[in-house]
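Deliverable D4.2, example record:
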Amino acid sequence: MAITAAISLSLPPQARRLSVAVASSFRSTTFILWHSPRFNFSLKNPNLRVSASSMSIGTSEKISTTSFLDRREIGFVHFVKYHGLGNDFILVDNRDSNEPRITPEQAVKLCDRNFGVGADGVIFAMPGINGTDYTMRIFNSDGSEPEMCGNGVRCLARFIAELENLQGKHSFTVHTGAGLIVPEIQYDGKVKVDMGEPILKASDVPTKLPPNKVQSVVKSDLNVDGVTWNVTCVSMGNPHCVTFGTKGSENLTVDELNLAAIGPKFEHHEMFPARTNTEFVEVFSRSHLKMRVWERGAGATLACGTGACAVVVAAVLEGRTGRICTVDLPGGPLEIEWNEEDNHVYMTGPAEVVFYGSVPL
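Output generated by the structure prediction step:
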């Protein structure tokens, strides 16, 4: 799969800015190295190396991604940046320790898109717990730690495959704060994830909204800044508030929403004691939805895997769709299935490398 990337980096006055356009293949084992006084970055490329600090360009035939990730330098952390439909993460090889190599405060700085690497979160590949192959932990861009991240676990699966030099179809068991998650890399490079069973009991989501359907909150009224929204509350190991519109007007046009204005009011609403992720959904058909998301601890993002899963669960509970749907997010589509036989939700979508880098701590 080929990718074209535009790269720019602020430099000292004598070399104020470097801009490089790169066309590369993910199958390549060599890559562009990008160095500056604060950061070193690399992008896969068959035969090109760029050093931003010296402005030199040359071939790099002997460098491999494995050797890069195996480096151990005191005071530096090596990472790979991945994205799942634009939801981007800094992936850190933490398999030798049960303690994250980066603190929440450092994660905030790394995620800063002006003064850091830039990301929605930092993900750690850690040793497995209770018989699992690996453990996943994540720090959001605000330093908070969510239970799990759907796009993030797809990125983690691809990261592990690279670390272990695995080819073809593979699955892993991953311990998360939301419980056991099983991602499976497909032959086409996409990742299918068994996200487990949705949690619908109101007190376990958690929400203080009173249950109105057995123990669940389905199409319930929520007053947000004087406007009544119809909401369904779902947990995929992390809390979600899903809405298809306001009371009396349920045909949302999600692109018209001022997400930055309304999103925080949902996230910090008193009805959500652990805060909440919020999905605003437009229905195209019984198998096609469109959503925008305000993520707890990250704000507006291009994609949210657990959110897409929660959206399909909510749509089924409200009688709007079937159990297999394409969900369009700003970053692209995800395929979601809420399987009736095992009650598990399955998510399928891409995860791709952006660049390799190292940063001093």
